[in-house]
Design brief:
Layout: H1 4-7, E1 10-17, H2 21-24, E2 35-42, E3 48-52, H3 56-65, E4 68-71, H4 74-82, E5 95-97, H5 98-106, H6 112-120, H7 128-136, H8 140-164, E6 166-170, E7 177-181
Helix pairs in contact: 6-8
């Protein structure tokens, strides 16, 4: 029997890839990007967990064990990267995708970096192309730390939005800080 704490478990999640969009023929071939590393944060244990490609089956098990999975752009990106690794239907996961939620409200996409800067006064520690480079160089500690940082930023943004009912972003045209209402 699942206890109440497990029934309300949240798993924050992000992954990085082995290849860039350019190397696989564009954004329509996400299934060819391959996982380099993934990181989760559990609301039950309060711990981060990292997974390399040989452990993707453990990641998928953990995702399906959570009551809710939360991430940034995970429906359109991360789940599609994971698709070749499982026959399970990732769209069946109860998911809160911060980017999808914000895009629905604004009508355009906002970067995690923009949200982190405007809402939390911090920034991402690297970017996806740097992550691919680190993977190729075997710098797994740096890669895992970067992925973990993105999970932490996502968790902090989610908590902020849950508590305040809004997050901020930097408008790419005016450079001004703006707010968007959220109800996740």
């Amino acid at each position: 029997m699942i206890d109440e704490k497990e029934a309300n478990s949240i798993l924050f999640f992000d992954l990085e890839t082995q290849h860039s969009f350019q190397e696989v023929g564009g954004k329509h071939h996400l299934d060819k990007l391959r996982v380099s590393v993934a990181v989760t944060y559990s609301s039950v244990t309060g711990e981060y967990k990292s997974y390399t490609e040989p452990r993707v089956s453990d990641l998928i098990f953990d995702l399906f064990s959570a009551a809710t999975v939360i991430g940034f752009n995970i429906i359109s990106f991360d789940y599609r990267v994971l698709r070749p690794y499982t026959s399970r239907d990732l769209t069946r996961l109860k998911t809160i995708d911060l980017l999808a939620h914000i895009h629905e409200r604004l009508g355009f996409r906002v970067s995690l970096s923009s949200l982190a800067q405007a809402t939390l006064g911090t920034d991402k520690s690297a970017d996806g192309l740097t992550a691919v480079k680190w993977y190729r160089e075997g710098k797994m500690d740096e890669l895992i730390a970067y992925c973990r940082d993105d999970v932490e930023i996502t968790r902090r943004l989610f908590d902020h939005g849950k508590q305040k009912g809004w997050v901020s972003y930097v408008d790419r045209y005016s450079g001004k800080k703006k707010q968007v209402a959220v109800n996740w």
